[in-house]
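task queued by scheduler; priority normal; single chain, no ligands, no partner chains; default sampling; output format set to structure tokens
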Amino acid sequence: MAVEVLLPKIGLTMQEGTIDEWLVPVGAAVAEGDALLRLATDKVDVDVEAEAGGLFHPVVPAGSTVPTGALIGWLLAEGEQPPDPAGAPMPAGSGTGAGSDSPPALDGAGAAATAPCVNGTADRLLSSPNARRVAAAADVDLTTVRGTGPGGRIVSEDVEDFLLAVPGDLGDPATPVPAGGLPSSPLVRKLAKERGIDLSEVNGTGPGGRVRRSDLDAVAAAPVRRDTAPRPGDVLPLTGMRGTIARRMHTSLQEMAQLTHGYEVRMDAVVSLRERLKEEWADSDLPVPGLNDFLLKAAALALREHPLLNATVREDGVHLLDGIHLGFAVAVPGGLMVPVIEDAVELALSEIARRSRTLAQAAREGRISPAQLEGATFTVTSLGGYGVDFFTPVINPGNVAILGVGRLRDGVEWVDDRPLRTRVLTLSLTFDHRAVDGAPAAEFLRTVAELLRRPLRLLV
């Protein structure tokens, strides 16, 4: 019996996903638990495993963006044919033309073919979904392109080769290839400019070293290098992680009444205790907590005393949440992620340190799972490492507060008319005034400060 393959919902906020790559060929035998596809979400890329066994038959091509729960393929028994695909979803950006209400059929190689015109007004035209997307972006009539794929199918490289002979840059005045540069189509040059890719550094795989769109995709998929920073004139599209951050932060500021308190705290005792722990734990496997780990533990304990800050606003009122799950911001290429330490108030400081390091490293290396980015009830974010003293962090939607941490710096306290050098930092608490008033927010900060003054209570 045929088993549906549906696009999984990975995380509470996921609405759609892009099939980055099918990891098994059409018709291949798949066992339960085998990696079936590489899925790109608005937060992470993840391999999706088959939930049953069978012969794999996709109904949407790689590169398609479809809503969660959509039918994307079948697992079939030997000799079984896939059911009628009429009810399958149309993936975004991969339709066969205006008014099309079903996905393109896939041949044995996983490539899509357009159906013959029923009125006989045009000949049968074979083309891949990617070729149609490239042609649509460049306003190219596919009937004028010669296909070199199997059975004369038009592939994206055919469209690019066609464009190579066309002057101009997609409607702009003619743009010659820079002196010493590699030959490439106007579309490839346009995409390279949008992605900030220097064509002279790309290894072209086309005839004569021609740079193709697939070569740009390979560069984009490579690990991010430090020398690819944005440059003046670049266009950074609001897609993927950047687009998600933009939408969430805009929604946050539009829907909440946000206010920020600044509060200076003494860190002398924390700095002293941390130095002691470096010596006492030198021969153990316990990780020495960093300053941010102390802040995470202090915030968790303070939230237990001030539950108004560990809440969410819904239509029927302010809901105080049972668990204290701390998110902490981690800068990654192209944006930031917020891994979550669940039930942080119940954890020893050493365990918070261990988990924060493990999660932060997984986020930076692209290995973190969507489940590890969900469920934060309160967030801590630090810019102290960048020399920032005070800032106004924006609340993550679903929370009512976020705590910002500034840099550790020298301060002065007067004792009996004598100046005393201290170690201080400034906390920036942004809260939703719909749920929390200024006085309770200040009391929360006072509790955090008192815990940091006597940090031995944070160890357990």
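post-processing summary
- The chain is about 25% helix and 20% strand.
- The chain has three domains: 1-107, 114-236, 242-458.
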